[in-house]
Design goal:
By secondary structure, the protein is mostly helical. The protein has a domain of 219 residues. Helix content is 59%, strand content 9%. Strands 5-7-6 form a 3-stranded mixed sheet, with helices on both faces. Strand 3 and strand 4 form a beta hairpin. The longest helix has 41 residues. It is globular. The N and C termini lie far apart (80 Å). 31% of the residues are buried. Bound molecules: zinc ion. The site of zinc ion (ZN) has 5 residues, from helix 5 and helix 7.
Length: 315
């Protein structure tokens, strides 16, 4: 039988053509790279990380320094004037951060086992000595946006605009625990790895279709980029948010903050309205009702963690 366009003497390369071979080789390479970089995360979810902890922490520090250089840091180191109430506020936030830091380090030393609804969801082979590599820092940025973040390496920032919605120490611990959860689960590294693989994929498409007209090329690249974003990055970031919720709740309970404040906090956050909420708390989060019911399901194990680590019951 003769397959049109297939020249047996040229084998697979003849059938696919030069362009097809380039795509095939790069695609196989990407698939091998992807699977060889897989590991099990804290909640038992499999994650692909091609970056090293050291690289992630270094990039975290660089980004942090840039933010601190551009934003007004409350009572910045070396500042000549810092009002007493401002100093007190920064100290309060740092104290919450340090309690969460200590809880994270102790949790890791215990083997970082995550329990969900009475069952072990996952332990952290990759967490290993992660917190040892962290150079924890907590800073307060004097700006109206209700924002907060924790970068790889334990670089945490809280915006003063967040304080009214946080309302109290427990609310603030819930937010900081969530942010630190992203850093502990290496979501930054995971995102960078996804983007690395996506951009290699795009280069492959560019190479293979390089001899096409610009318009066609742009269309192919656009279709690839858009498909990659909607198909992979968005669902992943939703998975990241749920995972950060899970870790944050456990972490705050272990640090002896009242975990029951968490659903109340996220309800307040939802009431801020779309315009007032920063992206971190907006599009990628599940809807507030779904989130509240998820927290209700997790609450018994968080309350148990509180009792175990704080030696007292919540009243
Ligand atoms: Zn988040």
């Amino acid at each position: 039988m003769r397959i049109p366009g297939y020249d047996r003497s040229k084998g697979l390369a003849g059938m696919l053509g030069g362009r097809g071979m380039i795509i095939l080789i790069i695609a196989v390479g990407l698939v091998i790279w992807w699977f060889s970089s897989q590991q099990t995360g804290i909640t038992g979810r499999s994650q692909t990380i091609t970056t090293s902890i050291e690289d992630e922490n270094r990039m975290g520090l660089e980004a942090y320094m840039q933010v601190l250089a551009e934003e007004p840091v409350l009572c910045a180191r070396g500042a000549t004037s810092c009002a007493i109430d401002e100093t007190r506020e920064v100290e309060r936030i740092r104290a919450i951060g340090r309690r969460l830091q200590a809880a994270a380090t102790a949790w890791e030393a215990e083997g970082a086992v995550m329990t969900v609804e009475g069952k072990t969801a996952g332990s952290l082979p990759s967490w290993g000595a992660l917190t040892d590599t962290f150079n924890w820092q907590f800073n307060v940025i004097d700006a109206d946006t209700p924002n907060a973040f924790a970068l790889p390496g334990g670089f945490v920032a809280i915006y003063t605009g967040l304080l009214p919605v946080a309302a109290n120490d427990d609310g603030l611990a819930a937010i900081m625990g969530h942010e630190i959860g992203h850093a502990l689960a290496r979501h930054g590294g995971e995102r960078m790895s996804q983007q690395q693989i996506m951009s290699f994929g795009q280069v492959a498409v560019g190479l293979a279709f390089g001899d096409m007209g610009m318009d066609t090329q742009r269309m192919v690249m656009g279709a690839f980029g858009l498909g990659a974003d909607l198909g992979v990055l968005k669902p992943f970031s939703r998975a990241h948010e749920s995972e950060a919720d899970l870790i944050g709740l456990e972490l705050m309970a272990r640090a002896c903050f009242d975990p029951r404040e968490t659903p109340r906090l996220w309800r307040r956050m939802a009431e801020l309205g779309d315009g007032a909420r920063p992206p971190e708390f907006l599009s990628t989060h599940p809807d507030p009702e779904a989130r509240a019911s998820m927290f209700e399901k997790l609450m018994p194990s968080a309350v148990a963690a509180y009792r175990r680590h704080c030696g007292t019951d919540l009243n």
